[in-house]
Amino acid sequence: MLSQTPAPLKASGVLYLHGFNSAGASPKARLVKQACEYLGVACETPDLSPLVRTALDTAQRSLEPLGPRPIVMGSSMGGFLATVLAQQHDLRAVLINPAVRPAALVESMLGQRFVNEYTSERFSIEQRHHDEVAEITPDQIDAWRYLLLVVTRDETLDSARTVAAYRGARMLIHPGGEHGFAALASYLPAMFAHAGYRLEAGKIGRVA
């Protein structure tokens, strides 16, 4: 008889990291928080700086109240940061359309100005944004840590490159879709299974 892969131990808490120019009050963050509240799991969804070293410091501090064995979930640039944390702190992670080695993407945005619709923060992309991303990018990843959720029609990132970068990880590939991953509510059971929890399908609805 073939041995079965043991179920992961229950995560002691969930850290959700939002994407670029978003916030801890984004729809995906609120969905994850709602699922955590339903399951009785500690959850942190911090607002992150557009400077990745500052964002990483915030994320690391947010791990502290989540117990000895948290799981990290992140979308887009938050997925990149989740990867950095998972590798640094020996954690599992769930990644939603993560940015893969995003220094080149940041370089293409140099000089662009942004306003955060959630926080009203105004900022421009500078060389230091690029340099900080390049400095913290992991040289390699441990694929077993990750559950990857990726769409096939990401208008912002190259989905094929994402799949290749996390080859060997557990993957759920959503046909079509978009970078914002509007179908995320349907994948919450799989996300929380990776954290060691059973969440029945349809228990958490879509957040507008």
Automatic annotation (TrEMBL):
<protein>
    <recommendedName>
        <fullName>Esterase</fullName>
    </recommendedName>
</protein>
<dbReference type="Pfam" id="PF05728">
    <property type="entry name" value="UPF0227"/>
</dbReference>
<dbReference type="InterPro" id="IPR008886">
    <property type="entry name" value="UPF0227/Esterase_YqiA"/>
</dbReference>
<dbReference type="InterPro" id="IPR029058">
    <property type="entry name" value="AB_hydrolase_fold"/>
</dbReference>
